[in-house]
Structures are given as structure tokens and as C-alpha cells.
Amino acid sequence: MNRLTTSWGDLRLARFPEDPRDPLRAWDAADEYLLRELEKTDDADPADLSGTVVVVGDRWGALTASLAAHGPVQITDSYLGQEATRANLARNGIDAASVRLLSARDTPPERIDVLLVRVPKSLALLEDQLHRLAPAVHVGTLVIGTGMVSEIHTSTLRLFERIIGPTRTSLAVKKARLIFCTPDPALAPGPSPWPVRYALPDGIGVLAGRSVTNHAGIFCADRLDIGTRFFLRHLPERSGPAHVVDLGCGNGVVGTTAALAGPETSVTFADESFSAVDSARATYGENVADPSRASFLVGDGLAELADGSADLVLNNPPFHSHRATTDSTARRMFGDARRVLRPGGELWVIGNRHLGYHVRLRRLFGNCEVVASDPKFVVLKAVRP
């Protein structure tokens, strides 16, 4: 638990789900820099926050909680980011009704007077967000982006310039930087180019040559990544009815492959990204005729699934949390999988060889088998005892 001090108050903040062992804070220097800019101490006037304030991409709710007195609208693609915001509001005794929480797939406000953008890792997600928000921005809108220096590139600034208006950056402070953008009503950036569709390559099984849909922000959104391609070549062959879970589903190609390969298979697509689950829903709907065999879950891992309810869990866990390299997400995914699998059920995992997932799986399941490997990736199987 850490404290963030601003002119709006002293806040106790934590990431979600809270882990006392996690040394990472729920904010960073980019969040602090933006809040100081809005405060404008000394002889500069503070920012006018009396209109509609929209906070985009707030990672753990630090910006939203700090500005709660101004009734901000938060827009995020992360379910965990939303839950972190709710938890941090409650932790500080702030009425949850004072803010409005929207997903990246929801319709944004019709008018935006202050637009604060935490620059995401995905340039495609930023492009889609700016396109969706641009119609609500007007000449008087205050637009400020923020991010660490390593997150802000020339391509980042070009997106603001092309979609919103003239753009400049601040000096770097604690390796963080601000983006100042002046809305230009003469710009006509047009609709967002997202989602995109493309045909899958040959040699990946039953889904070869079929179409996949990707909303912005999905990993390798415009092509099939090499790890998933390797995984699809080595998925288990099953017969008869089964409940399969595509955990961290992304665009849903793994779960859709399982559904096509097993006519009696039901699949749950689960991800913490709203855009990922919408992508999976579109990919499945385009390739599988029976909608009753699929369910789609945006949430915290598999928290909503019952114990012992799955026969097979397929998982390609991320090993980054924003800029930090960590195995905390993988650990939680493996624990979720063990809980929801019936005895004898299997967890199949694809990962980079160097990550050493086999150690964690043996500790958790008591067993782990290497199904396939190449110089970069390994496919592992663990059986629920």
C-alpha cells in the first residue's frame, strides 16, 4: 500500500488484485506529472475542470481517484483497471457514484471539455481511442497526454497531430513527459480503421484460411503471432462433449479452433480486455455456426467459473504488466486453471522457453509434461490430480 499526495488529497492506492508481496505502486511518475500540471501552483492558474473531464487509460485508478471531486469519466480497455479504480475509491472513502466508468467499447460522452490520456503501450489502441473521442472534442477542450519517455515516440505524437490537432511535448521529468494537443476543428480524420480482419495462414489446423477479427490493442492485431501459430499446431485432439476454456483469449483463435475441432465442445472465452473478448466473439461468430456452444467472459481471470467445471484450459499467459516484466499474471492464471479443472482435466500452456513455467506448474499440479518445443517456445501440459 502506498500513498499519493496531491492538492486534492492524500490517497492510499494499490494495484488490483491487491497483493502485499507486490512492490509495484498503483501510479508512476507520468501520473504525478499530469496531476502537477493540472494543479498549476505558483503564479499559474490551475486547469479548469468544471466541464466534462474524461480520463483515458488510467491504469490503476490513480488519476480518476485524484480527480473524483470533478466527476470524471474514466475510459479503459482493462477490467482490472476498472476494478482497481473501484477498490481505490472505496479504500479512500470516495463515493463510487462520483465517477463514471466506461470500457473502450462503450460510447464516449458527446462533449469533452478536458481530455486526459495515459498513453497506452499499443499504438493501435491509442489510434482507435483518439478516433472515437475526436467528435466530442471542441476548440476549447484541454487535451493532455502523459507517459514515460520510453512510451512516447514520434509515431505517438503524429497520431495526436493527425486526429486531434497541433501537438507539442514537455520537458522530461523523472523520465516522464507530457503531450499538449490543441484541437483543430478543421481536421477530418474520419472513422477509426479498427477493427481489422485478416485471413489466417495455412498449416495451423482447422482454422487455416479462415478470417479473424481484431479490435485495437490486441497483441499482434494485424497478423497471427508466432507463439499462437506454434500453439495451434500442437493443440490436444479430443472427442465427445467437453468444456474448454480459452484463458487470456485475445482474438479467440485458440478457442475457436477447439470449437471447430470438436462439434460437441463448448468453449468459454475469458480475458480482462473488453476489446479482446469482443474480438473473440466476432472471430467465433464468423467461423462457428452454433452460438450456443460459446460463452464470453470479461473479468478477473476465471473468478466467475465454478470449481471443477472445465475439462481443458488453454493458456498463453502474458509476462508483462504494462512496462514491468512479471510472472504474477501467469501465476494467477495457473491457480485459476487448477481450481476450475475437474480431476483429470488438463491445462495446456504456451510460453517462451526462458520463462520456466514448468517449475511453477510442477509445484502447483504435481506434474508437468513437455508436449512440444522449438528454440523459442515450449508447450506444456499439467493434469489436475
Describe the structure.
This protein is α/β, with parallel strands linked by helices. Helix content is 26%, strand content 29%. It has helices spanning 29-39, 62-66, 79-91, 123-133, 154-163, 226-232, 253-261, 274-287, 328-340, 357-365, and strands at residues 2-6, 9-13, 53-56, 73-76, 100-103, 112-118, 137-148, 167-169, 176-181, 196-199, 211-214, 242-247, 265-271, 294-298, 310-315, 320-321, 324-325, 341-352, 369-373, 377-383. The strands form 5 sheets. Strands 5-4-3-6-7-9-8 form a 7-stranded mixed beta sheet, with helices on both faces. Helix 7 packs parallel to helix 8 (274-287) and helix 9 (328-340) runs parallel beside helix 10. The chain is globular and about 70 Å long.
Outline the fold blueprint.
Layout: E1 2-6, E2 9-13, H1 29-39, E3 53-56, H2 62-66, E4 73-76, H3 79-91, E5 100-103, E6 112-118, H4 123-133, E7 137-148, H5 154-163, E8 167-169, E9 176-181, E10 196-199, E11 211-214, H6 226-232, E12 242-247, H7 253-261, E13 265-271, H8 274-287, E14 294-298, E15 310-315, E16 320-321, E17 324-325, H9 328-340, E18 341-352, H10 357-365, E19 369-373, E20 377-383
Parallel strand pairs: 3-4, 3-6, 4-5, 6-7, 12-13, 12-15, 13-14, 15-18
Antiparallel strand pairs: 1-2, 7-9, 8-9, 10-11, 16-17, 18-20, 19-20
Helix pairs in contact: 4-5, 7-8, 9-10
